[in-house]
Amino acid sequence: EFLSDETLEDFYKELHLESDNFLKIRLSTKRFDYESVAKRLVLPVNQTDWVKSGKLANVNAYYNVLSNRIILPAPILQGVFFGDDRPWYMNYGGIGFIIAHEIIHGFDNDGRQHDKFGNLEDWWAPSTKAKFLTKSQCIIDQYGNHSVPELGLNLDGFMTQGENIADNGGIKIAYLAYNEWIRRNGRERLLPGLNYTDRQLFWISAANVWCTKTEPVIEMM
């Protein structure tokens, strides 16, 4: 469908860009996005809708709770995330961590409230739900106590719990998976010039994919 001019023309037929002013163009595209979503509210759910998977050029990965699926666009399967010619501690720390992170989103504070079809449903056993809420409160408290001295602010542990749960669960799964890889295949050669073990390089690789420099105003958001 992505390669069909007819499909794309039909999808964007209501999008009209009649100005060369950036702000007006942006407002037009946002209006088109919102109207497209509103029209789908009265239509049957289409789990294979190509629009939901339309971000093919994004260097990103994401979990769609309404369709209960993970999207891994091709651009993320390269660079610091993955390479078939590099040690596997780098791949498990990179794309392995990313994939596991997205899997956990299916069971975080939002994902747990949707069934396998993406429908909103409280399907967990009461005892399971109680244990989850207890453990998730630990995550909320832990991150709520993390401060950013440069900004004089604390993280909002409640608002960020979904990502924090996915990070904690994802990195644990990826690390356990890499240890299983070692058990099956043996230890790998280390990177020259660096005095780190293979397991230490896993953690460094995981941290490296999130390494970034941002302006303070972005950090506050």
Automatic annotation (TrEMBL):
One of its GO terms (biological process) is protein processing. GO terms for cellular component: plasma membrane. It comes from Photinus pyralis (Common eastern firefly). GO terms for molecular function: metalloendopeptidase activity. Gene3D superfamilies: Collagenase (Catalytic Domain). This is Peptidase M13 C-terminal domain-containing protein. Residues 60-216 form the Peptidase M13 C-terminal domain. It comes from the Eukaryota. InterPro entries: MetalloPept_cat_dom_sf (IPR024079), Peptidase_M13 (IPR000718), Peptidase_M13_C (IPR018497).
